[in-house]
Each structure stands twice: as structure tokens, then as C-alpha cells.
Amino acid sequence: MTVAMYKIVDFGSKIEYPAYRAITGARDMSLSKKISAAFVGAIALFSASMDARAADAPPANLPACPTKEDKPAVAPMLQRVERTLEGNSSISTMTMTIKTKSWTRTLKMKSWTKGRDLALIRILEGGPRETGMMTLKRQKQLWNYLPQAGRVMKLPSGMLGDSWMGSDFTNDDLVRGSSIVNDFDSQVTGTAQQDGRDVWRVVLQPKPTAVVVWGKIEMLVDRASCVPLQQRFYDENGKIARTMSFGDIRTIGWRQFPGRMSIKPADSERETIITYDNMEFDANIADDTFSLNRLQEGR
């Protein structure tokens, strides 16, 4: 296919479009401008369409989901799982609901992430002491901004496994502290059914050098999409500690993404649910979004 290139010349308020005059024979400048405006608009729409198609296409180096294999190579499959959930960067808004037998609490949050080393969470709506609170992760370090006190508090790295804001999600869950690819040895142990879907059973054991609080994780991964549907977390004594479930699977670009995550501790009747209101992957995020200076300024 031959693509014709047309010269468009802008001389301040006097605009001439030689290509259009040659094609249309238009002599009236207002008509020429209208035609050219339509042409420029069409080019803009075409460019936006191409950008959207590029965003919908999976990265060239992304491992394929090995749907037809009963016992696939586990490393590339988990790479697919992790990249499906995370992307190179993301901006999201979400609602967290914490339920107990006696009360229910809701937080509205916004999150920015870049790679595995940078993450920022800001509470948009909550109680008087919670609204405006922020959690920043840079590499393995964590800070909380406390708006009531107007100060920043650094958290020890050992607190990655602690509860975030009194919920059943940990700091590690929300700021991507550990990686199922890099921090665990894993194997596919079989196949099963979960919520009407064919799944793989995957067992993950923490590597000796990994800084994680779990003794073992059992994961059910959807064979059609490589989306996790359930994770069961065990303590170092082999006792079940909690179950994380994933649902409301949505299509975002090339990926299937769970729009709902919930955690139920094994030893209580509590439950914490996160529902994504909006999610944008591979967003352009300025590096200073994750700066300690901005956190100290509360913005």
C-alpha cells in the first residue's frame, strides 16, 4: 500500500494547504481550512486508534499463557501471572471495605506504582484521622505520612508483613514487597476446577534468602487467562493463616485482570475486600511522584 504524504504549512493566521488545493481544486480559503481541519482530525483519530491497538497488544517478551498444558513450565507461567497483575507501572483508584461481626469500615484510595521498587498509596476518603494518609515504598523502605501530625514516619522493613490500616491486607500485599517469581521456588502440582474454571494448582516455597513471612503459598491459576483465582497462605508451622480470593475478571488492554480481591483470615470472621474502581496500566508517572520530599509535604 502506498501512503501519500501531504505538506501542511502554517504561517501564523494565514494557513495554506497546497496538497488540498491540488486535490480538490478549492480556491476558497474557508473551504480549504474546513477540509484540512477534517483531514487533521482524521489523522488524530487514526493515531489514537493506533496507540490504543499498541496498548491492547501484549509485550513482545511476555510469555504466552500455556493454556493447553496440564503441567507447564512454572517459571514463565508465573512471570505471566505477575506481569498480568502489575504491568510496568499503574495508576488505580479503589475501595477497601473491612468487615467484622460488629462493624464495617470503608476507605477510598488511589495508588501509583512503577516497577517493583516504587509505590505510593493515598487515602482519599476515610475517617478524620485516615483521610490524606499516605504510604510510600522505595526499594525495601517504607514510610507513612500522618496528616494529623503533619509528619513522616519510617517503618522498619520487618513491618512488611504487618496489617495495613487495620485491614487484613499487609503492607507487602499493597506495595508489592515480595515477588512470586523471584522470592519463591515453585511447582505445578496438578489441575482442578475453581468457580467453573479449569485451573492449575501451584505450590510456592520461600527461598532461604527471601524476606517473606509465609511458610508456603498454594495458588490456583486460571488456565484460560493466567489470572490467579485463589491463594492460600500458610505460616512457618504449616498452619493455614488466610485465604485471598480474586473475582470480577475484567479485560484491560491485552490482559484479564481481577477487579475484586478479598482476604479472609483463618482464625476470625473478618474479611477485607478491595474493589478496583479504575485501573490504568503502563501509565506515564513522573519519578518525583515517589520522592520523600513530596511525601513530607503531604502531596
Q: CATH fold name of the domain at 74-112 and 163-282, please?
A: outer membrane lipoprotein receptor (LolB), chain A
Strand order of the largest sheet: 8-7-6-5-4-3-15-14-13-12-11-10-9
Contiguous low-pLDDT stretches (5 residues minimum) are 1-27, 42-54
Tally the beta strands: 15
| CATH homology superfamily of the domain at 74-112 and 163-282 | Lipoprotein localisation LolA/LolB/LppX
Report the biggest beta sheet as strand number plus sense, adding barrel if it closes. Answer: 13 strands, antiparallel
Query: Over all CA atoms, what is the radius of gyration?
Result: 25 Å
User: What's the mean pLDDT score?
Assistant: 83
The percentage helix is: 10-25%
Count of alpha/pi helices: 5
Strand percentage lies at 35-45%
CATH class of the domain at 74-112 and 163-282: Mainly Beta
Reported CATH architecture of the domain at 74-112 and 163-282 = Clam
Structural class: alpha+beta
Q: How would the global form be characterised?
A: globular
| Separation, N- and C-terminal Cα atoms | 51 Å
- Encode the helix/strand succession as letters: EEHHHEEEEEEHEEEEEEEH
Query: What is the assembly state of the chains in this entry?
Result: single chain
